[in-house]
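Chain A, query sequence.
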Amino acid sequence: MSLRGDAIRQAGANKAGRPYRIRNAKASPFFSFCLRRAE
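Chain A, predicted structure.
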């Protein structure tokens, strides 16, 4: 989970250029779930 969370975090941050939480959490509940687990 931590590795997957880091990958999502980096991809989101690089793609959006903004905090990954804001975009990914709104984009998909799955991302939100992963981010919560990662933290």
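Residues 2-38 form one domain. The mean pLDDT is 63.
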